């Protein structure tokens, strides 16, 4: 269940759901529709015939959708048809863990995909209260986390009862040697929604500093309802979402993938860029530092000036770009694939269910 069926969570849930069903499990998906949720026809195509995709919960407000989703989950749990409830994203985690189980042997598992108390767009009071709530609930049910640094946060700050790391990523078969396709001018690419979390003003600052060396392209404008001052007078071309084939072409033509986000869980955009052999420049936050090998497949930066200098170094040094392209694909094949996510997650479920009996 998730209230956040958009962006990377769509990719994660479709990957784990499809692979679990291929391994013999019965999988059903409950979700709420929000602005960036793909059309139901697209979702059904991504999930295929084996996964039961329930009709989306809709409503005018986020609060209405959330409580309707909770009621639907409660009805499903009371039916006694399920052995495991896997909750994705922080609100689904909070709502789902407050539903009383009819069967005590039903396992509840929570994956935050980025802890909400790390969000820099929230007040300190809000973040403190959210962390306190997460700490209390972490004693109730196991956590499945998708980055090593997220595991460290859960251990140090939440003192979680049970937790495990589950590798997310891209299918190994999708990582193929694609020759870099030179274009007339070098390109720096960003993939993600134009929202506060993704720090578009940082991307714009790098573009202003280095626009004489490359074109700067941001893919993921969605409905285009974002503050225009984030890009201001910067030379950034903002595009809507593109088809997967077109995105692969854009990545093949890009010299650098610049990902200056403020917080993450584990970014599939970074993983995708690495799998396509694009050197990455990113911020030193949870998830980002797990996807990149600093100095080998890209650069993990602690400040805005470092983002500019790392991008400049890659743009001005073609030999370094070539070395990092090759290293990025090797790293992706070795550490950033999700081929085992179905069987690995089912094994975790079974282990925790057996331990509770």
TrEMBL record:
Keywords: Glycosyltransferase, Transferase. InterPro entries: Glyco_trans_4-like_N, Glycosyltransferase_grp1. It comes from the Bacteria. It holds the Pfam family Glyco_transf_4. PANTHER family: SULFOQUINOVOSYL TRANSFERASE SQD2. The lineage of its organism: Bacteria, Bacillati, Actinomycetota, Actinomycetes, Micrococcales. Residues 7-161 form the Glycosyltransferase subfamily 4-like N-terminal domain. This is D-inositol 3-phosphate glycosyltransferase. It comes from Microbacterium pullorum.
């Amino acid at each position: 269940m998730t209230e956040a069926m958009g962006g990377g969570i769509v990719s994660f849930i479709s990957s784990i759901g499809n692979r679990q069903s291929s391994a013999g499990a019965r999988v059903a998906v409950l979700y709420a529709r929000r602005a960036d949720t793909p059309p139901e026809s697209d979702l059904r195509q991504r999930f295929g015939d084996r996964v039961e995709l329930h009709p989306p919960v809709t409503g005018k407000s986020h609060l209405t959708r959330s409580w309707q989703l909770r009621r639907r989950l409660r009805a499903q749990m009371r039916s006694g048809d399920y052995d495991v409830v896997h909750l994705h994203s922080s609100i689904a985690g909070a709502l789902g863990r407050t539903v009383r189980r009819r069967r005590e042997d039903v396992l509840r598992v929570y994956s935050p995909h980025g802890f909400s108390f790390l969000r820099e767009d929230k007040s300190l009071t809000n973040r403190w209260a959210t962390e306190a709530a997460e700490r209390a609930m972490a004693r109730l049910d196991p956590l499945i986390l998708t980055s090593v640094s997220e595991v460290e946060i859960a251990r140090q700050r939440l003192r979680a009862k049970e937790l495990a790391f589950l590798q997310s990523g891209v299918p190994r078969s999708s990582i193929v040697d694609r020759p870099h396709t030179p274009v007339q001018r070098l390109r720096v690419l960003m993939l993600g929604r134009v929202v506060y979390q993704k720090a578009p003003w940082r991307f714009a600052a790098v573009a202003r500093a280095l626009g004489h060396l490359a074109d700067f392209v941001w893919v993921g404008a969605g409905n285009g309802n974002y503050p225009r001052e984030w890009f201001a007078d910067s030379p950034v071309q903002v595009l809507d979402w593109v088809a997967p084939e077109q995105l692969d072409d854009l990545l093949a033509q890009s010299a650098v993938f610049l990902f200056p986000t403020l917080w993450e869980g584990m970014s599939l955009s970074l993983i995708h860029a690495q799998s396509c052999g694009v050197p990455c420049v990113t911020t030193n936050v949870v998830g980002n530092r797990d996807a990149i090998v600093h100095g080998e497949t890209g650069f993990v930066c602690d400040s805005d000036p470092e983002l500019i200098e790392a991008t400049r170094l890659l743009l001005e040094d073609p030999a370094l770009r070539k070395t990092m392209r090759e290293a990025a694909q090797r790293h992706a094949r070795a550490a950033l694939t999700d081929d085992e996510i179905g069987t690995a997650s089912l094994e975790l479920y079974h282990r925790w269910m057996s331990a509770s009996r």
